[in-house]
Amino acid sequence: PPGSGRVYAKISDFGFAKKVDLDNQQTYLAGTIPYMAPEIFRLPLIVTQAVDIYALGITFYKLITHKYPVNERNLKDQGEKLATLKCIEKPTEITENLLWDLLSKLLEFDPNKRIIAFDALKHPYFTSPEALSDISKEQQDLASLADV
């Protein structure tokens, strides 16, 4: 908020948005095709918050490589392509092992094995001494003001 001394970075895709009901699972299909998790293409369709983690992984992947790992022309082709894969292969653009370890956990095809947000934030990519040494004094000062 203005004047709070805090900085918030937000990435949004409102191709599909709805109020979250933690007691119910979504049972209908919607979304932006390259960001859709593999389980969205399987029946019975049961969508959980794990699809958002997969979409976050796709967002990171695209920011780093400037491409999608799978980007077929339509929903049918995307589903068929994902069905032929066991996982997203490491692209040549990603050479840092900690980054790929985090990305591969975000992009895990099995939603029950996919990393959850809490654990992703504690991943060594964000918390290792090397990662922490990359944080500027100004960034450290901003982080110390956050309600974490």
Walk me through this protein's architecture.
Residues 1-126 form the Protein kinase domain. InterPro entries: Kinase-like_dom_sf, Prot_kinase_dom. The protein has 148 residues and is mainly α. It has a single domain (33-145), classed as Orthogonal Bundle (Transferase(Phosphotransferase), domain 1), CATH 1.10.510. 40% of the residues lie in helices and 0% in strands. The protein has 7 helices and no strands. It has helices at 50-65, 75-84, 97-106, 117-121, 124-127, 129-133, 137-145. α1 (50-65) runs antiparallel to α3. It starts with 49 loop residues before the first helix and ends with a helix. The mean pLDDT is 85.
